[in-house]
Amino acid sequence: MPRRGFTVKKNWDNPVEHAMPADARVPAEVRIGRVAVRPATVLAPMAGVTDTVFRRFIRHASLFARDQGSGIRDQRVEKIEKRSEIEDVESAISNVESGCGLIMTEFTSADGLARMRETKRRRYLTFYDDEHPIGAQLFGSNPETLAEAARIVEETGFDTVDLNLGCPAKRVVGCNGGSGLLRDLPKIGEIFRAIRSAVTIPFTVKFRMGWNDAQIVCIELAKMAEAEGLDGLALHARTREQGYSGQAQWRWIAAVKQAVKLPVVGNGDVRTPEDAAAMVAETGCDAVMIGRAAPANPWIFRQIAQYTATGGYEKPTNEDRYGMIRAYFEMLLAEAEATRDLPRDARMGDPVGKMKQFATWFTHGVPGGAKLRAAIYQARTGPAVLCEVERFFVAQVDGTATDATDGAMDFREAALVCD
Ligand SMILES: Cc1cc2nc3c(=O)[nH]c(=O)nc-3n(C[C@H](O)[C@H](O)[C@H](O)COP(=O)(O)O)c2cc1C
Fold it and tell me: Partner of 180 at 20 to 30 A CA spacing, among 25, 61, 91, 159?
């Protein structure tokens, strides 16, 4: 059984011989109620990150695969654009292609959703046809308001609705939302019942182990979820007090899996395909959820699928990264353009700010990436950012790039922090 932190040796010559042992394979499918998640990998909800552009970007990540180098930029951007135009995108795009079986929205305030104007709601709950299956995550503490928000989520066409019991942010916990509720199991029971009776779509919960090491409630909570008719669970194996520090304690995922029959999604510190295999082997979880590794390495889902099948996986070249950065920027600009004439509260946020944020993550591991990041931060417009990206990579190809100090970086150094 592969152990955590161990790198499983890859054999590229005869990968089939080295396919994962069955107990370390990320399952090909998990069913969350009536929704088939294929393969059993999930993009974690991440506030400020998993908006519609990023989610679709992850879904399409397979299109950035190496295509023998010719005209990467135009071909890839063109592919993305063509895909968006296909009417029946759902059938045209296989989740297996990107390796990511389920994507989730950023968390959304149930109070806000129930109160906000239709136009603003549209911004929070926007998704495209090619995002199915997609879950919407809610946070809040009032059972009726959460039930009303879940109804809105269902009417909007989401495949699943998820309750956040994990967010450690003070402003969320302060209103008894997120991980704050972990100290009040009876209230969680009320919320489970209210949401369950409000919607027919699959209803899931994402939670932490407990408030702190002295108050671990994950097993009790999982059993309650099962008794109240929820369809699945995702455990981020840390306590609220831990925040994002230390290591996720996967043994609690194993304990929850033992305690219930519901599908259990494991979450916390999966950074590589080897980690995903190790989590399945150690915990028996039914699916693996990935957060921080996705913005640094959008190929991770595809790599997991490859690794599961063959015991090996492709790693991105600089050209691949270039294609990826460009395509992501193009998608941001296209979304900003598409929402330009909508009322202000329905428009996409500042695309240039988003570009800068993502360029930081995307360029880790690219030689000279620090220089590129500095140039991007100076740029003031979307086209100016794209221009810097282009200039940088042309210099790489010409061999005129001077700064090669930004070598491969463990993405832990680029870890994002939820406030
Ligand atoms: C920037 C950021 C934003 C996050 N926002 C949410 C959120 O909206 N809802 C949620 O349930 N978890 C949120 N999380 C937690 C992640 O979903 C995930 O549980 C956590 O990052 C551990 O997984 P990882 O080690 O794969 O990153 C967030 C994490 C980060 C880093």
Answer: 159
